[in-house]
Amino acid sequence: MNERKKEPTMKLSLITAATLTALALGCGVSDEEKKLDTPPPADPAPAETAPVRKLVDGPALSTSPVNLLADPGFSLVGRQQGYGSFLAFYDGGSERFELATTLDSRSPAGFGGAVALVRPAKATDKKSQAVTLLTSFLGGSGPFHVKVWVSKSNVAGEPVDLPTDGSAVKVSVMEGSPDSNTAFDLVVDPNVTRTAAGRTWVLLRGDIPKPLANGGFFVVRTGTKGGHIHIAAPEITSDELTVGQAVKSRSSLMLATARTKDASERLAIRAYQSMPPRLVPAAPKAELLD
């Protein structure tokens, strides 16, 4: 009797277990459904904001292809000297000043040339020796159109505002004739500036309507109020050049102010003319073949 009572109980237990297993299998959740039911992961903590990159124009040529200046990209500085190269002297004499240059695609020279740096010895943010930077160019009947970009740094190289009253930098064109004392001063164009990487570039320009039959000199003079001066993309073009017709389309003229050369400018021009040429030797034949 005891065995008969136990038998139904065992069968019920087996049936119950099988039923529960079938129900579990039938009501199971697939892996795909589990993925759908799983809540999405929380958004990661925001990363530190990266600086926004700004696209800046970088021309392939630093100036017009019909520029009368032979070295507007300052590539000859520290290498060759002679007609058309830039030389520099401390103001008031013939003591040479060694120019430095730097490449900065964000400057008005873009990828086509370097920037000249006037960094006088022992300069402070308040006081510096004046420097005269100049180069020669071929003249003609004109009219001539002159421009250059300038900027200023403190002695640590950080950009600072450039005074536009001529106390920090003055740019002029001098007649090349030894009998002429005429100079033409460029003026700041108040409608044109360029700012990149915290540095503001100011455009100085001037139009010279008269002929310069004996050529001339492009002259930059820095002041005595401290800091460093950056110079980029100097340019002189002439309407006389038929291949340069494109440069004639100008919205307005800004006539350069005529005046008389001073003694310091005449000294710098004489020092420039008296410097013997210095040429970079040609590469050996083996290097040329490579």
Structure description:
This protein is an alpha+beta fold and 290 residues long. It has a domain at 87-274: Jelly Rolls. It is built from 4 helices and 13 strands. The protein has helices at residues 2-26, 31-37, 263-274, 285-289, and strands spanning 87-90, 100-102, 115-118, 131-137, 144-153, 159-160, 169-175, 182-185, 187-196, 199-208, 216-222, 228-238, 257-260. The strands form 2 sheets. Strands 2, 3, 5, 6, 9, 10 and 12 form a 7-stranded antiparallel β-sheet that branches. It has a 6-stranded antiparallel β-sheet with strand order 1-4-11-7-8-13, with helices on one face. The protein is globular and about 90 Å long. It starts with a helix and ends with a helix. The model has no long low-confidence stretch (mean pLDDT 82).
Helix-strand layout with pairing:
Layout: H1 2-26, H2 31-37, E1 87-90, E2 100-102, E3 115-118, E4 131-137, E5 144-153, E6 159-160, E7 169-175, E8 182-185, E9 187-196, E10 199-208, E11 216-222, E12 228-238, E13 257-260, H3 263-274, H4 285-289
Antiparallel strand pairs: 1-4, 2-3, 3-12, 4-11, 5-6, 5-10, 5-12, 7-8, 7-11, 8-13, 9-10
Summarize the structure.
The chain is an alpha+beta fold and 290 residues long.
Q: Using DSSP, what is the number of strands?
A: 13
Main sheet: strands, sense, barrel: 7 strands, antiparallel
Query: How would the global form be characterised?
Result: globular
Total helices: the number is: 4
What's the helix-strand series? Answer: HHEEEEEEEEEEEEEHH
- Under CATH, the topology of the domain at 87-274 can be stated as Jelly Rolls
The CATH architecture of the domain at 87-274 is Sandwich
Strand content: 25-35%
CATH top level of the domain at 87-274 is Mainly Beta
What structural category do the secondary elements indicate? Answer: alpha+beta
Question: Helicity range of the residues?
Answer: 10-25%
- Over all CA atoms, what is the radius of gyration? 37 Å
